Amino acid sequence: MKRTNYEVRSTVDVQVEDRTISGYAAVFNSESNPLYAGSTQFREILLPNAFDGLIERSDVVATYNHSEDLGVLARSVNGNGSLRLEIDSRGLKYSFEAPNTQLGDSVLEGIRRGDIKSNSFAFMVEQGGEVWKRQADGTYLRTISKIGKLLDISIVVRPAYEEATISTRGLEIVEEEELEIYFNTLKSQLND
Fold first, then answer.
1. How far apart are the first and last CA of the chain?
2. Residues 16, 115: contact at Cβ < 8 Å?
3. What are the residue ranges spanned by the domains of the chain?
4. What is the pTM (predicted TM-score) of this model?
């Protein structure tokens, strides 16, 4: 399955108790490390209401390194299923029982050994759900107020944020040409 125009953000702090894996896929009001889209540098902040109403209308899977090809660890359809999602004052919290599969066992072992300790989520911003502001140093600050679609939460090897649960973040937009058009449009709007 090829996805276009989705972004991925990562956090650290995965917890394991027996076969239950939990953590925060996103944390609110936490400025990211520098992110890059081509040569454009920016940071971003996720506002507390960004996920409002999203869990109840989403089909979200838990994956390893954002790959459904490896298998699915858990799933939440409209808030029900083996993947438990919750929004609290800190952010988007998740938990699930690792399945008794090769993937489930492998992820559990990696977490227990400390080789895997990061979370991530793939998403699409709702139209009008972001504000870009040029900073004095020439970089941009992106403030996300509304996520339009939550695609997955993922246990990942390489995080992109450094703060507690959303400490490492990375931007991933599949179509490079669309990314270039997107940022050229934003630059144009910001310069007007």
1. 38
2. no
3. 7-191
4. 0.75
